[in-house]
């Protein structure tokens, strides 16, 4: 612009004007405005240029910086948003999609988006502690190879941790470091290991670490990956009854009573249906009663000598044989279980009984379980510690009277492991609830929420259950106790048998009354006497024995048929000699042998 006049022109202002009217106007203003409009230069945010008095909109280039290298992957403009090519002719509407940009190369020359964990750890491998123990190595075990001076870590907790880390959406590099002395023994307790994490000497702990409120004040735990709680392990006792009356126990008293009543009822029904036509059910009254009961009760063991002739009696017997067959089979199976299968019951069912009895109790060397036993008011003199499942089995086998223990207390995963090995000897009784096992990390570790989400994921629960079944197999091949059979299981069978017998009895009574109606309708004598007389009378209403009449008629028909064949060949010869024919002879014989009407 050169040298310009920087004086200001003043305006006349009245008293009523505002203060803006008294501000002077530069005489060089128009010239300065023209020079600014013609000024262009490149600044930090791009080109500086005024268009129609307004600053021109800037275009930003997006740069991917990886180490010391930089590469452009696109642009951003106020009109179009994100663009791959600034001078592309196919510009669409305003876009914020990263698909319009070039590929981004992340640290490690990877196109996968990291979670930021490498940045937080500065690329260092995590140092994860693993406990060294004398017993219960199924959870975590350190095997040291003297030839190579290396250690191998295995166990249930290790497999769970490795499976979860593989499911994270980013890579976590770590080393499992045992926590022993140089001689291989444990360097300290679990609390000492947690102190190492608090002092930032290590980055985490993987093992059977119990989640407690006190520990969570100094470190972060993931979600529990095992069943929680403290349980009591107690021996079984065989409560199998060995008295002389054990054969009565397969059936309850109401079933025994119902079965006996039905044997009597079936005997009565069969006698009614058979005594008129069957000689086996005839004779003196005592003989009839004995035969009827013998027939009914002997169905249980063998086939009867007595035959039944009435179809109704056969129907009743068939149904009753079916019922008796099912009853005997169930009775045999139940009695076998009572005599052979052990009926195992726990020796102790609650903690109060242990406190009152004064017996010794055991616990795994663990300050958490020991503290819980002290809170339950157990005396120190009665507490015996153990280190392994085998040692626990020895103490329980001895019993409290011989220097052992009456029950053992431990966390549920350890108790389940003992039960799986000795399921025929011991059982588990839940006692107290705890938080379970969890992985330990420093306060504020970003791994804790990510690992917890994987543990709580339903799709990963099945995988963790497979790992648990591998290292901590469930109990199998253990005997179950048996129960007595009740009437509730058989009342349907008795209903069928009873209904069948009653139906047969009703049919017989209808037929009996119909056959003897002419006797009952006669005016002579009382109805009761007529009924008793006709019921005791084994003869038919025409005075002939029904069975004998049937047999005689069958024999007569058979002989008559033979005589016809014989008479056809010899009829002429017999007539010439004046001899009677075979048919006539047989007829005479039948007339002589059969009573006349």
TrEMBL record:
Belongs to the glutamate-gated ion channel (TC 1.A.10.1) family. Glutamate-gated receptor that probably acts as a non-selective cation channel. May be involved in light-signal transduction and calcium homeostasis via the regulation of calcium influx into cells. This is Ionotropic glutamate receptor C-terminal domain-containing protein. GO terms for cellular component: plasma membrane. Residues 569-578 have a biased composition (Polar residues). The chain crosses the membrane at residues 255-273, 315-341, 490-513. The keyword Plastid does not apply. The lineage of its organism: Eukaryota, Viridiplantae, Streptophyta, Embryophyta, Tracheophyta. It comes from the Eukaryota. Keywords: Glycoprotein, Ion channel, Ion transport, Ligand-gated ion channel, Membrane, Receptor, Signal, Transmembrane, Transmembrane helix, Transport. InterPro entries: Glu/Gly-bd, Ionotropic_Glu_rcpt, Iontro_rcpt_C, Peripla_BP_I. Pfam families: Lig_chan, Lig_chan-Glu_bd. May form heteromers. It is found in: Membrane. It is a multi-pass membrane protein. Residues 569-597 are annotated as: Disordered. Residues 125-474 form the Ionotropic glutamate receptor C-terminal domain. One of its GO terms (molecular function) is signaling receptor activity.
């Amino acid at each position: 612009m050169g040298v310009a006049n920087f004086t200001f022109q003043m305006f006349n202002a009245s008293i009523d004007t505002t203060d803006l009217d008294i501000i002077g106007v530069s005489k060089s203003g128009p010239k300065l405005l023209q020079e600014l409009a013609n000024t262009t230069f490149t600044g930090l945010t791009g080109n500086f240029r005024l268009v129609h008095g307004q600053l021109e909109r800037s275009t930003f280039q997006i740069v991917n910086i990886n180490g010391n290298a930089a590469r452009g992957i696109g642009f951003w403009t106020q009109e179009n948003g994100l663009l791959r090519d600034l001078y592309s002719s196919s510009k669409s509407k305003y876009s914020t999609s990263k698909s319009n940009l070039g590929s981004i190369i992340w640290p490690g020359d990877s196109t996968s988006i990291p979670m930021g964990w490498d940045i937080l750890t500065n690329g260092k491998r995590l140092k994860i502690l693993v406990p060294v123990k004398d017993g219960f190595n199924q959870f975590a075990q350190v095997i040291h190879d003297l030839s190579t001076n290396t250690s191998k870590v295995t166990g249930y907790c290790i497999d769970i941790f490795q499976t979860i880390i593989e499911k994270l959406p980013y890579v976590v590099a770590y080393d499992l470091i045992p926590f022993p002395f140089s001689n291989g023994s444990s360097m300290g307790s679990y609390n000492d290991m947690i102190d190492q994490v608090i002092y930032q000497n290590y980055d985490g702990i993987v093992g059977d670490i119990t989640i407690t409120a006190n520990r969570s004040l100094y470190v972060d735990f993931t979600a529990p990956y095992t069943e929680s709680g403290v349980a009591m392990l107690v021996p079984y006792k065989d409560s199998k009854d060995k008295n002389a009356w054990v054969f009565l126990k397969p059936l309850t008293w109401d079933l025994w009573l119902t079965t006996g009543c039905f044997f009597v009822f079936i005997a009565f029904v069969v006698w009614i249906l058979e005594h008129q036509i069957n000689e086996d059910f005839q004779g003196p009254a005592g003989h009839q009663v004995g035969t009827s009961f013998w027939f009914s009760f002997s169905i249980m063991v063998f086939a009867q000598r007595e035959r039944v002739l009435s179809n109704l009696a056969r129907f009743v017997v068939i149904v009753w044989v079916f019922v008796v067959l099912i009853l005997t089979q169930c009775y045999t199976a139940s009695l076998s279980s009572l005599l052979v299968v052990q009926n195992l019951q726990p020796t102790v069912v609650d903690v109060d009984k242990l406190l009152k009895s004064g017996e010794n109790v055991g616990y795994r060397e663990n300050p958490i379980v020991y503290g819980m036993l002290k809170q339950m008011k157990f005396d120190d003199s009665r507490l015996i510690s153990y280190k392994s499942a085998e040692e626990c089995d020895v103490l329980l086998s001895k019993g409290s009277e011989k220097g052992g223990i009456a029950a053992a207390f431990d966390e549920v995963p350890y108790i389940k492991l003992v039960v799986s090995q000795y399921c025929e000897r011991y059982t588990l009784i839940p006692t107290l609830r705890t938080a379970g096992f969890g992985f330990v990390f420093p306060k504020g570790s970003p791994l804790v929420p990510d690992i917890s989400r994987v543990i709580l994921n339903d799709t990963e629960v099945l995988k963790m259950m497979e790992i648990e079944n591998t290292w901590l197999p469930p109990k199998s091949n253990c005997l179950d106790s048996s129960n007595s059979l009740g009437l509730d299981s058989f009342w349907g069978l008795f209903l069928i048998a009873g209904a069948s017998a009653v139906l047969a009895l009703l049919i017989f009574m209808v037929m009996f009354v119909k056959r003897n109606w002419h006797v009952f309708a006669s005016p002579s004598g009382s109805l009761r006497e007529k009924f008793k007389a006709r019921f005791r009378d084994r003869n038919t209403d025409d005075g002939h024995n029904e069975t004998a009449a049937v047999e005689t008629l069958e024999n007569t028909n058979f002989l008559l048929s033979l005589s016809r064949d014989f008479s056809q060949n010899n009829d002429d010869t017999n007539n010439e000699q004046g001899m009677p024919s075979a048919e006539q002879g047989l007829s005479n014989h039948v007339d002589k042998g059969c009573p006349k009407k």
